[in-house]
Write a structure and sequence with these properties.
Helix content: 40-55%
Mean pLDDT: 76
Number of helices: 6
Low-confidence stretches: 1-8
Largest sheet: none
Structural class: mainly alpha
Distance between the termini: 28 Å
Order of helices and strands: HHHHHH
Radius of gyration: 21 Å
Length: 112
């Protein structure tokens, strides 16, 4: 891709333009009902670093946070307690208290 190809269009516009589509390939708008389900549900790449925590790990963190803290002298989970317990159980190898609390607050909805 040359510098001229990039002029006047953002990265996202180029990806949308260059993304393979079903149909004739003539560049015309394609009705959503004409696309296969896989293509309807596909998404463009997101900016930033990919998540290191899988959806399954997030589910495990949420399930753990729904439990009563048994082995800890606390009445409710804090970000630090969640992070410590998640690492102790081996769900993830490393997570900050802030990220652990954010996973519970936002889930995975803002990443997908």
């Amino acid at each position: 891709m040359t510098r001229a190809d990039c002029a006047g269009s953002s990265r996202w516009e180029r990806q949308e333009r260059d993304r393979p589509r079903s149909g004739s390939g003539s560049g015309q708008a394609v009705s959503l009902s004409d696309l296969p389900v896989e293509e309807r549900l596909s998404d463009l790449p997101r900016p930033g670093r990919p998540s290191e925590i899988s959806a399954q790990q997030i589910c495990q963190v949420v399930a753990m946070a729904c439990e009563q803290p048994k082995e800890r002298p606390i009445s409710h989970w804090t970000g630090r307690e969640i992070a410590d317990e998640v690492m102790r159980r081996g769900i993830v190898s490393k997570i900050s208290p802030r990220h652990a609390a954010g996973v519970l607050k936002k889930g995975i909805s803002n990443r997908i």
